[in-house]
Design brief:
- With 407 residues, the protein is mostly beta strands.
- The protein has 4 domains: 118 residues, no CATH class; 118 residues, no CATH class; 78 residues; 58 residues, Roll (SH3 type barrels), CATH 2.30.30.
- It starts with a helix and ends with a strand.
- The N terminus is likely disordered.
Length: 407
């Protein structure tokens, strides 16, 4: 059996191959026995016209390799190229899977397996890591690097975390800027206001004013959903800066282990939802009895803007009332919360079969009698009662326990 496995591996290993790894957040996906499995690095080969792992498992999504080739290549963004006769052609792109905590994944026969669904994305986008080939080494982002100066200048001794003269930053984004060595220091906690994360949202930048403005407005990725923090890794920042024209070595990047970014938001306290629900119950159901919500809920995070709460549904329930309170931000519906209300200890209510005192009022005259309640009600509500003579009346239940009937 061992010899057969070795022979199978040798057969698969022949022909063009590609060793890849994820530098930063994310994992490669493969399919095994009908389910997705994951890995941080892989040795890819061509078998039956497809790119597979040496174990024979197909990539997800699959990448077809057309015809015989002499080599394979991949760039930082995960684009895979087939090489034949000196020509290079794109044949597909690697897709990465991200989990909130990769440490919770389980190891199973050389792969990682997960119970939860991952977030999918392209390498280098939305804070996903980049793809590197075996032997490619990213320059350390936390060590200042001295940049060679033109021969007409005297090269000063570089000092850690201090700007030093340097050549013009390469790329269209910074060609007109007088060169300096900017220092980028990632904060432990960043916050973004818009849909896209800018470098200035996650880091402090020390540079000339014009160059600093270019750097802090460099897009890094998409802002996470409200209430969902996202990790920040150096590989994603380096890839984003490179896309903007800032090559590694043209700046100093100081990272922070465990750095996170969140979307800027405002919170609505549970007491605000309860107050809106009580107002709706009094207006729509006529319940004037003191009501309260016994279910403790956390504050709701919402986008920035003008907040308004509106009761969309208001229904009487056996325990009191249920109200669906919707949240509107700048006139747009954002979310809603169901509030269950019940009368507090000072509220007065009656249930079917209870005997109550009835006051019949007509033209200033008042006649009192007793009757039995036919339906549940709380003070301030209309209630139906039946007298001993069989007369069915409807009146308003007062807080003192009497039912007032206008004839």
């Amino acid at each position: 059996m061992a010899f057969t496995s070795l022979l199978f591996s040798m057969i698969l290993a022949s022909g063009p191959a590609l060793d890849v790894r994820v530098d930063g957040q994310g994992l490669f996906r493969f399919v095994r026995d009908g389910r997705a499995v994951y890995t941080k690095s892989a040795h890819l080969i061509v078998r039956d016209g497809r790119l597979v792992a040496t174990s024979g498992n197909d990539l997800l999504p699959a990448i077809d390799v057309p015809g015989p080739i002499t080599g394979l290549d991949v760039d930082l963004q995960g684009d895979v190229f087939a090489i034949q006769g000196g020509a290079k052609a794109a044949i597909g792109r690697l897709v990465l899977a991200s989990f909130s905590d990769e440490g919770e994944l389980l190891t199973d026969n050389g792969f990682l397996i997960a119970r939860d669904r991952p977030t999918l994305g392209n390498p280098g986008d939305d804070l996903f890591g980049v793809v590197r080939k075996a032997g490619d080494v990213a320059k350390p982002s936390f060590v200042p690097t001295a940049i060679p100066l033109p021969k007409t200048y005297t090269t000063p001794t570089p000092k850690p975390l201090q700007p030093v003269p340097m050549p013009s930053v390469a790329g269209s984004a910074a060609q007109q800027i007088k060169p300096t060595m900017p220092v980028i220091t990632v904060r432990a906690q960043g916050q973004s206001q818009g849909d896209h994360i800018m470098l200035g949202d996650i880091a402090d930048v020390s540079a000339d004013d014009s160059l600093k403005q270019l750097l802090i407005t460099t897009p890094i990725g998409n802002t996470p959903a409200i209430g969902v923090p996202r990790g920040i890794d150096s590989a994603s920042i380096i890839a984003a800066l490179e896309r903007a024209g800032f090559k590694p070595g043209s700046y100093v990047l100081n990272t922070f282990t465990g750095a996170r970014i969140t979307r800027q938001c405002q919170e609505i306290d549970q007491t605000q939802f309860v107050a809106a629900a009580c107002e709706a119950v009094q207006e729509r159901l006529g319940i004037s009895a003191p009501m309260d919500c016994q279910i403790a809920e956390p504050a709701m995070a919402c986008p920035m803007g003008e907040i308004s709460l509106k009761a969309e549904q208001c229904n009487k329930s056996p325990m009191g009332a249920s109200v669906m309170v919707a949240v509107y931000v700048d006139g747009m519906r954002f979310n809603a919360r169901l509030i269950q209300l019940s009368p507090d200890k000072n509220a007065f209510g009656v249930k079917p079969g209870d005997t109550v005192k009835v006051e019949l009022r007509a033209s200033g005259a008042v006649v009192q009698t007793t009757a039995k309640v036919r339906a549940q009600a709380w003070s301030g509500q209309k209630v139906t009662v039946e007298t001993d003579t069989g007369a069915v009346l409807q009146g308003t239940l007062n807080a003192n326990g009497t039912v007032e009937v206008e004839l």
